[in-house]
Amino acid sequence: MVICKSCCPKKYVFSDCHQKVLSKLRENIHLNGFVLTDEDDYTEKPERVKDSDTVQMSVLELDWESVTEGQLSHIDTDVIIAADVVYDPDVITSFSNTLCKLLLYKKAEKWLDIFVASTVRNSETYKLFQTKLDEAGLKWQTVADHKKNIFVYEANCTVQILQVSLKM
User: Fold this and answer.
1) Do 21 and 55 share a domain, yes or no?
2) What is d(CA 163, CA 117) in angstroms, rounded to the nearest whole number?
3) Percentage with pLDDT > 70 across the chain
4) How many other C-beta atoms are found inside a 10 Å radius of the C-beta of residue 101?
5) CA end-to-end span of the chain
6) How much is the pLDDT for 40?
7) What CATH number did the domain enclosing 95 receive?
8) C-alpha distances in angstroms, 159 versus 35, 43, 142?
9) What is the pLDDT of residue 42?
């Protein structure tokens, strides 16, 4: 929501695979002054959201383990920001493969930037994520630490941001 309120992108997609999270996303969209408009089933086509500044947001059910090309084709974006998604070793391979599919699918159309922001709770899990990115044919680099704290968080936690792209 902060990005939508402060940066005013043309479009923004919120996604998850759990119905309760998707419901909370819709609720938060409304609480922040945006209005959902009617559209087809959000499992295949995202619900469009518009506000007075014409920011279009989407709520999309996206399960990395069963994502389809049809779902990926509806994701019309040039930047993906994945936050706090690297914590479960059981879904890291699926997540890495989904990132690779998105990059390959969008490669022919336009440039796609992917950023993955993580609180490193378990260094082994985080290293597994980096290994799976390598195995999926993706290159990654750590984005330099920022000096200014915008959000309140525990300073003793390691926060890493990776920029992910196809290996050339």
Assistant:
1) yes
2) 9
3) 80
4) 17
5) 33
6) 37
7) 3.40.50.150
8) 32, 31, 11
9) 43
The one-letter amino acid code at 43 reads T
β-bridge pairing 79-83 and 35-36: unpaired
Convert the pLDDT of each residue in 38-77 to its tens digit: 433 344 455 555 444 557 777 888 999 999 888 887 777 8
On whether both 50 and 88 belong to a single domain, the answer is no
Number of H helices and number of E strands within the chain? Answer: 5, 8
Which residues are within 8 A (CB) of 141 and not within 5 positions of it... i.e. 6 or more apart?
A: 162, 163
Please determine, for residue 131, whether its predicted confidence score (pLDDT) is greater than 90. Answer: yes
124-163 as b/e: b if 16+ CB within 10 A: eebebbbebbeebebebeeeeeeeeeeeeeeeeeeebbbe
**Domain of residue 47, residue span:** 1-62
